[in-house]
Amino acid sequence: MFDIEASLDSRLLAVPRNRPTVMFPEALDPRTLEAACFLGRFIRPVFLAPEAEVRAVAAQRLAHLGADRVAYTLSESAFVDPVSRPDLVESFATACVAFSKAQGRAMDLGEARKLVSEPGRFGIWAVKLGHADMVVGGAIHEPKAFFRPMVDILAQRSVTCEAGVFVLPDEHPEEVYPHNIVVFGDVGVNASMTPRTLAEVAVGTCAVARDLIPEDVLPEIRCAMVSYSNRGSDEGPSPELVRQAADLVPAILAERIAHSPRYASIQIRGEVKVSVALSRRSAGLYHSDGLPWEGVPNVIVCPNLDMGNLLYHLYATRFPEAKKFPVMFGLWFQGVDLPMDCTPEDIRLALKASLMRLHAYGEWKRTPKDTFFRRHRVLVLNPGSTSTKTSVFEGDEERFTEELQHSAEELKAFEGRPITDQFTFRKEAVLRFLADKGLGLGDLDAVAGRGGLLRPIPHGTWKVGAAMLDDLRAGQRGEHASNLGALIASELVAGTGTPAYIVDPVVVDEADPKVRISGLKELPRRVISHALNQIATARRYAEEHETFYERVNVIVAHMGGGITVGAHRKGRYIDVNNGLDGEGPFSPQRTGTLPAGQLIDLCFSGKYTKAELKLKNKGRGGMIDLLGTSDMREVERRVEAGDAEATLVYDAMIYQIAKAITGQVPAFEGAPIDAILLTGGMARSPKLVGELTRLTAALGCPVKVYPGENEMAALAKGALRVLSGREAAKDYPPAI
Ligand SMILES: Nc1ncnc2c1ncn2[C@@H]1O[C@H](COP(=O)(O)OP(=O)(O)O)[C@@H](O)[C@H]1O
Ligand SMILES: CCCC(=O)OP(=O)(O)O
């Protein structure tokens, strides 16, 4: 059976995106609520009911989903009782009056207010006026109370239609529909058919089929416009209607193909007798004018709504295991209609199908207005040794990012001086960036800077305050460009009331006391790691599973110029190697753990100065020392070319990473590990990922890959969690 949900998921997840806002007028219907609990990574739900009522339904009816999934979905949702938003009711009512007038129907404002206060209409008008992107209903509303007004108000074409998509179970004889996939049209909209309407329905239904079913599964969309007559074999108004419609199809289809060449794989034939469409044997009997393709169609377009509706419900009841859902054509992906007898799975599939089409074909970027989910504007600052990476985020959306380069010439003036001396010079570059984007400091809701070398602190978003600035200025825990993040952020917001934050700096340390014990009292272990990307990756995994960071057990391997392998136990970053100071696997630029005795001998051999050894440990060690390059792509090329030395070193590094991963098992105290997450630049290598998957297979948990490091998004998200009230910002230094 073609896995249509997996196909939709992979297309939805192919590119990380902003999430569309979806209105749920039927918020108290447990099926709808259940479906929403599986859509958190794709949408922002707005439930049109009081929050307490939605929570009560969830508590009573959704216990089988597990508390985490439901709690996560509700934490990511908005709850709006229409009567509590008189501002919106007024604006929707005004638009409703104007709309009715344009349609030649008189309506007074009082009547309109009453109408749009009803959740179904409220949801439709919210979409129409740009407050949301999609509305879904029909599971409890009768068609005339939701579906008809939705089509009326949201229609973008003169003819709209509804396609019924089925993937039938394997027990269905496959020779009828290839891969057991069939799409029916029109199953819901057009109560009266004209030849033009029917021709538009045929093309629209085929367009839906083409959008949803990948070409490698169905190379051609083959549509039969069915009738009781086969190409003139019988007479009557119905075959005549289909015949006239079939004559109009080529011009309408040509328009579609001009719009997008992917529709060139659509073939439509009418009128075709139902038996000819569904049986090769019957087709043979009518061979004199058979179908233009070998075999059978995958789209059946019906001459009237009764027949389309009958087919939908006949197949739905006859094959309860079928994957089935309706899809609207002509509403610009803004409306989802549900049959009253739908299941939570049908709702989930219908929404995913519309969302996939919205993203892939609707050129959707963002919800036009941020009424239900405020899009806070956050400036993100990430100072590195030779650049200051600067971004502006609006909500989840990365609006601008630039790596503000500081030339060697500019930096020469600061050589040998504390990093804080670069403060003014870098701040000016950030101000120029903002001006260039037409933004002033007053346009920002927060500034988030990369945290520097501070005292060890728990994970989270930290307010930039006097004590933090003092520590960074003093540079007692080390000099690093990232120390400038909080300093510049603080200066930019001074006197404006706008908050400045840092998020998960490299010094995040939540390790158990036992993790700190080394075999020498004087040398307790210290934790310095890629905390920002470690925790952001674990959060991303949790979000993809519609749950919280606090609910997952994962091991994260950040594999970049430095490598850290961390254990995240239910929201606590419990153990990780010190990736900055010679612990863990060797990496492209760092030695990792070295044999202690031999290291001591080397230190006292007189062969190297302290500075030289420090540089070997971090910067000139690892792959650079062993193979003369820190570029793993070059190493892999050498491995591919059969270079024995490169192969040995490459295998050794992967072996050490795998050992570090499996070495984190005790951190979970026997609890199951949900997943191993591979991230950083090296996670782009399929070869390396494949080898790590093989070597850690004994753990019995899946390996998920998140290539690169999304530091800018991670910083923005940390600030956004605070701005949206989901997390409280912490005060530095933490109370001990
Ligand atoms: N496609 C790839 N295949 C293998 N290694 C890669 C690939 N892309 C980047 N890398 C390696 O990842 C490392 C850099 O990781 P990254 O996380 O980008 O860097 P940094 O830690 O310097 O911020 C380098 O060793 C680089 O060669
Ligand atoms: C391991 C601490 C942070 C760090 O070393 O970052 P980079 O690997 O990006 O230099």
TrEMBL record:
Major localization class: cytoplasm
Short name of any one Pfam family annotated for the protein: PTA_PTB
Residues annotated as domain Phosphate acetyl/butaryl transferase: 17-347
Lineage top rank: taxon: Bacteria
This protein's UniProt keywords: ATP-binding, Cytoplasm, Kinase, Nucleotide-binding, Transferase
Kinase as UniProt keyword: yes
Catalytic reaction equation(s): butanoate + ATP = butanoyl phosphate + ADP
Family: Belongs to the acetokinase family.
Protein name per its UniProtKB record: Probable butyrate kinase
Gene: buk
